[in-house]
Amino acid sequence: MTGEKKYSVVRENLLEWYDENKREYPWRKTTSLFQILITEILLQKTIASNVNNLYDDFFKKYKDFTAINNANIKSLQLDIKSLGLSNKRSKILKSLSEMIISKFNGKIPEDPMVLKEINGIAEYVSNAYACFGLNHRTLFHDVNIKRIIERVFKIPINTKRNELINEQLYMLLPDDDSKHFYWALLDFGSNICAKKNPKCQICPISDYCHYFFTS
Ligand code: SF4
Asked: Mind listing the pLDDT tens digit for each residue in 15-34?
């Protein structure tokens, strides 16, 4: 099978699997750019179900950047304590809200890459926000996405690892609607291509997976 064909079959099979098995989360339904951006910060280094558990209460209390900016930091820390890293996370939320209010009049800047000025907001958050909020075809990978790409495409462990993962991701992403494809990868990495004991026997892309034939 040629490279191009492999990408399209893997893409289609993952999207089909996702149609049947998608996880429902409130941040996948909202059109609020504020909630989409803040959720990406909440989702860093924690599992989605933790964010799901506090999502409604959090956004009932913090309706906009002003609410976060005005919040007492201890109280904000308590509200997100269950996610872990609450000191660091609350500082990022405060700095982000302060910048958006003081420099952008309370509106998220049109160029999401400006967000990287905030200490603690890495490229992942800016690119994930651009994808999920603005429908941009951006490249980003968390541990789940990374693991799938590494296993399927046999990425060598060297200094160019991230670059090589992004190259494969670039080929794999659909031309439009990359948002749903990223959700498919995230759910697939969590449910099927798990870190321990991946469910290769029921995997819809095992025929195209390097790991499957070599492990
Ligand atoms: S065959 Fe196994 S390792 Fe390969 S993508 Fe599927 S679950 Fe992951």
From this structure: 999 999 999 999 999 999 99
